[in-house]
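Give me the fold.
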Amino acid sequence: MFIEPSYQITSKKGWIEVICGSMFSGKTEELIRRLKRARIANLRVEIFKPVTDTRYHKEDIVSHNDNSIKSTPVDSSLKILLMANEVDVVGIDEAQFFDAEIVYVCETLATQGVRVIVAGLDMDYLAKPFGPMPPLMSIAEFVTKVHAICLVCGDHANHSYRIIADKSKILLGEKESYEPRCRKCFTEGMKKRNRV
């Protein structure tokens, strides 16, 4: 479990935390946990998500376990800089769906003394690095990789296996579209799919 470093309002030392992993691994759950703890510590918190993510709620960030927290949907990562005024902590969910400027936004906020907590898929459904997540992980002070359980064999899963026939790079979906798989079961599934 990630133990948050001490954030002292007087020192205003910022940093970036990235929570990554596959679908159903608990990324959003961990993001919500950290943000709620920041609020308990009386820190000023702002939370953002991509405007395109409307799976559970138009505005709230909602985990697969139905935990939720209010957020502000934005259509551009640069808008986060405009809206994150006088805050101690910024939370960002589904970072893989943001434009490349999200890296600049996170670095700018951290340099200004803000604790930035980012959650997102590290790989797409083809097991390729997803959007701005690799550069975010490389500049972060803390990276937490969480794992789901493989629905085929029960081992640790770090891949999001798409179970429907759709080749779009971005396909918002849940259990009807994806399942978590370990490397072996993911690879076997992709081989079968490619033979069909």
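The longest helix spans residues 27-40.
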